[in-house]
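Bumping my old thread because nobody answered last time. Still need a sequence for this structure:
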């Protein structure tokens, strides 16, 4: 009998044929997907580092010029290895980072096609719906943040490993998993976890898949595949324990997150999950920083409505599992893949676009199950699906334009969240970086209206005044920052403000205070070198070398050291460059 093995066990379908017409078919589809994806994301390909990109190793003076071992010694080593490779090839250019993100996204769309194709076959649906699912995944505007945002690579790269493991599992040649296949899935799970921890859900997804489709609504398939489920579950459990340990004391993600308890986060997610569903169906109103309010009580009407809806939808999925297996499986898989960020583990930002990247698979399976039941002519349905994909692509292009520049990104965010202090702060920094210091000043003032000014805000606010040559106001803000947190950095900025106003005595006094606070802060010696550059270039050279000894990655010391050494050689007195080098804003 076709499809049967001698031992009577049903053989799994083989992967898509790699011969004959299929080679051209898949090759053409891949070329088209690449072309369409790069066109959709073209406006963002040269976009700069923004937001959390500032905390990545390539933007860290302590790590940027170090070797691969230093980059991967912390969390998410595989992700960091790809950043290191980009940085090694292109240094500060962001184009390569963005190109890799798009390539990972296209690869994910292909893997999602394979996964949905196989699940459609299992459920008795037309496999060509998988093309539509892949097109929606590739062009959906909700994916823009994960692709256009360099830090969003944690989503695209972890999903690549996740989908690869799932596809390997689905396209096995026998229903019973071999040790070799189990090892492959286990390694891919490890790679996924080395990119982002939310992929810990993969073992449960494999269990759910075996229950639904091997052979169907039975634990027999789970028992048969113990070679896979036992080690993979054990590995995932170990990873979850390590994750919990790592988040202890973390104030932005984990049970120590400031300002939100675990049950309040759960209440909030009862609403947020439905926002993800709505944004999947109608992707409008996206934001880089939603500033979504935390629900403090289960008694809030929106929380009760959201919780009731989740219970009803999950109950309906269980009830209709045999009648609509793709839809039921899709809903449960969606909730499962979303669980690490939308359950009881508090995260400072309850609502983030890129968290839908991986779970979108579940929603796409539900859409397929609905489409296959429509009493519509096949050609008409195909045309409607093509039109829907095109409309989504236009939305992605428009969203990529927003991500293409910090000013457009944060102006859009502030427009949608006018009371979001963090968004106003990012907009102020974008204005300052663009030389629009008066606009930056107004934005910093708005931040101060929305929240109590902290050290970081006061430093950057002071530098906006420096940019406008308002020395007294600049020093006032910088000294207010020093009163909150007296650092060598803030006193060097006070010195810079005075130096720009040719008040050398006060500038030197501020630098002496910086030395007293931290004798190993490199920028202090750069500023001190400027005072000696005109009359004593040898002393200036010594000070610049001192700065480089303390921080070989100092961004400005080498150029000033070269000036000092040139003066020593020529012994010609030339106008000093002054003490006004590029100010150093507080970390974002």
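Sorry it took so long. Here it is:
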């Amino acid at each position: 009998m076709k499809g049967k093995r001698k031992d009577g066990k049903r053989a799994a379908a083989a992967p898509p044929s790699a011969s004959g017409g299929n080679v051209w078919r898949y090759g053409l589809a891949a070329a088209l997907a690449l072309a369409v994806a790069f066109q959709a994301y073209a406006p963002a390909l040269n976009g700069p580092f923004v937001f959390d990109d500032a905390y990545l190793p390539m933007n860290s003076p302590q790590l940027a010029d170090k070797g691969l071992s230093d980059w991967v010694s912390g969390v998410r080593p595989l992700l960091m290895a790809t950043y290191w490779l980009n940085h090694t090839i292109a240094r500060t250019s962001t184009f390569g980072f963005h190109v890799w993100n798009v390539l990972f996204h296209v690869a994910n769309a292909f893997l999602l096609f394979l996964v949905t194709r196989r699940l459609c076959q299992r459920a008795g649906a037309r496999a060509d719906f998988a093309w539509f699912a892949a097109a929606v995944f590739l062009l959906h505007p909700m994916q823009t943040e994960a692709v256009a945002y360099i830090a969003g690579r944690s989503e695209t790269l972890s999903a690549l490993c996740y989908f690869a493991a799932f596809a390997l599992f689905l396209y096995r040649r026998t229903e019973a998993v071999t040790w070799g296949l189990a090892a492959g899935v286990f390694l891919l799970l490890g790679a996924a976890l080395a990119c982002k921890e939310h992929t810990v859900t993969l073992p449960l997804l494999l269990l759910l898949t075996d229950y639904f489709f091997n052979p169907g609504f039975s634990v027999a398939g789970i028992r048969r595949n113990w070679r896979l489920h036992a080690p993979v579950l054990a590995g995932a459990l170990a990873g979850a324990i390590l994750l919990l340990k790592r988040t202890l004391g973390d104030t932005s993600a984990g049970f120590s997150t400031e300002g939100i308890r675990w049950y309040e986060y759960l209440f909030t997610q009862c609403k947020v999950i439905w926002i993800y569903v709505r944004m999947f169906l109608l992707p409008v109103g996206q934001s880089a920083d939603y500033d979504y309010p935390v629900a403090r009580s289960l008694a809030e009407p929106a929380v009760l409505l959201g919780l009731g809806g989740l219970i009803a939808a999950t109950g309906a999925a269980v009830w209709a599992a045999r009648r609509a297996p793709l839809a039921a499986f899709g809903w449960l898989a969606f909730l499962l893949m979303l669980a690490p960020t939308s359950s009881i583990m508090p995260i400072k930002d309850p609502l983030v676009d890129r968290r839908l990247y991986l779970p979108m698979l579940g929603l796409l399976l539900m859409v397929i199950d609905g489409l296959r039941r429509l009493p519509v002519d096949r050609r008409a349905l195909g045309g409607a699906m093509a039109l829907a994909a095109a409309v989504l692509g236009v939305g992605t292009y428009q969203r990529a334009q927003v991500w293409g520049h910090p000013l457009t990104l944060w102006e859009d965010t502030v427009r949608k969240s006018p009371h979001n202090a963090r968004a106003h702060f990012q907009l102020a920094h974008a204005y300052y970086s663009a030389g629009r210091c008066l606009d930056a000043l107004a934005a910093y003032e708005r931040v101060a209206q929305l929240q109590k000014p902290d050290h970081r805000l006061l430093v950057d606010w002071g530098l906006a005044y420096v940019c406008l040559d308002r020395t007294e106001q600049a020093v006032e803000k910088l000294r207010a920052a020093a009163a909150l947190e007296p650092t060598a950095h803030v006193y060097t900025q006070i010195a810079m403000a005075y130096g720009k106003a040719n008040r050398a005595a006060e500038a030197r006094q501020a630098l002496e205070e910086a030395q007293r606070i931290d004798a190993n802060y490199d920028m202090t010696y750069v500023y001190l070198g400027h005072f000696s550059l005109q009359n004593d270039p040898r002393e200036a050279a010594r000070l610049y070398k001192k700065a480089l000894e303390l921080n070989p990655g100092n961004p400005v010391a080498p150029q000033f050291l070269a000036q000092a050494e040139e003066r020593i050689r020529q012994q010609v007195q030339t106008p000093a460059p002054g003490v006004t080098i590029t100010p150093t804003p507080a970390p974002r």
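The mean pLDDT is 89. Let me know if any region looks off to you.
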